[in-house]
Structure prediction request, 398 residues.
Amino acid sequence: MTRPYTPEPALPPPTAEALALSAQLSALIRAEIAAAGGALSFARYMELALYAPGLGYYSTGSHKFGARGDFITAPETSPLFARCLARQCQQVLAALGGGAILEFGAGSGVLAVELLLELERLNSLPTEYFILELSAELRARQQQLLAQRAAHLLDRAHWLDSLPVGGLHGVVLANEVLDAMPVQLFVHSAGALRERCIAWEEQGFVWRDVPAGAPLVQAVAALQAALPEPLPDGYCSEFNPALSGWVRSLAATLERGAALLIDYGYPRREYYLPERSAGTLMCHYRHRVHADPLILTGLQDITAHVDFSAVAAAGLAAGLDIAGYTTQAHFLLGSGLPELAAASDPENSAAHLAMTDQIKTLTLPGEMGERFKVLALTRGLEGLPLRGFALRDLRNRL
Ligand SMILES: C[S@@+](CC[C@H](N)C(=O)[O-])C[C@H]1O[C@@H](n2cnc3c(N)ncnc32)[C@H](O)[C@@H]1O
Prediction:
C-alpha cells in the first residue's frame, strides 16, 4: 500500500518551498531505508522527520508554535503556566538555598522568558538558566526572544550542547519534550512480535512489519508483565527506546533538586489498554490532528503519549525519588493559580475574559487539565512536600 502525499480536504496544502524541503528529506530517508536493507525502524524515521539537521520538522524555520503554527503548548497558551511553574521553582530553590534551572527543549523560548521574569518579581532568580535544545534553529529563536523580552537577564541564560556533568543544584524542566522523542512501533501478530518499520514503494513511504529484534521483544515482554491481561492479537503500540537512558543521564546531572516532567500521557496500565489497540501516535499540522506520520514528512509534528510508569521506574532505578504525580490542572491549582486569577481586575474586561479563557484551556478536563500530567523526580529533598502536588496525589496509579 503506497502512501504518497495526497492532501486530504481537511489538510491545507503546503507551499512549493515546503514540499521541496520535504522531498529532500524523503530522499535522505529513502537512502537510509536502502542502506538498512529495505525497512527502517520507525524510531529512526521519526528522528529524521523531526530532527535531521536543516530538514527535520524542528530544524527548519517554519512556524510551529502558536496560532500561525501547528499546535499550541501550555506556555504558549498563557503566561499563567510559567507563573505557576515559577512558584514551584521558587519553593525548590528556597529549600536548596538557591540554584540553577535547566530546561530541556525550550521551543519558542516563551517559558524561559516568562519564568525568569516571574522569578525576578518573586525575588527568586536562579543563578543560571540552562537550555538544552536539539534544534539549532529553535536555539536561535530562543536567544532572540530572550534578548527582546528579558535582555537584562540574558547573562543568566546558557545554551548547552549536552548535559552538564554532575553537580546541578536546582530544577530541571521538560514541557512536552518526552512526547517528541522517537518511538519504536510493535505489533502483536499471530502470537509473534513484529516491529512496524518504514519502507518505500513507488511514490511513497509505506508500513512494513518485520520480526522484532531481541531488544524490542524484551522491552515489550517487560511492559506486558506489568499489565493485568495480555495484549490482544493485532495490537499495535509504541515503545520509547531512549527514555530510560534519558532519565539516567538526567539523574546523573541532578545532584540535588527536582525534575518536573510535564506531558500528555498515562500510567502504563492506562497506556496499554486493550482498547487502545492502534497506539497513541499523533501528527499535528496547522492545528489539525491526524494519525498518518508517513505523509508531510518533515512538515508536521509527530508525537506519542508518555508512559509515566516507565519514566518513574527509570527515575527510581537511577536513585531519584518520585515526589509527585498529578494532573496539570491540580498542579497549577496547587502552584498559585487561584491567587493569580484573583489578582485579575474584572473591570479590565478584555484582559479578564482572556485570562478566564486561558485558565479553562489549561485546567478543564476536556482541554489540557487532565490529559497532561506532571511528574516530579527529586534528589535530596526528603521532607519537602512540593506545593504543586499537594491537592491530588496520583502516585499510586504509576
Ligand atoms: C513539542 S516541542 C515543546 C516546546 C516547549 N517545551 C513548549 O512547551 O512549548 C518539543 C521540544 O523538545 C525538543 N526536544 C526533543 N527531544 C529533545 C531532547 N532529547 N533534548 C532536548 N530537547 C529535545 C524539540 O527540539 C522541541 O523544542
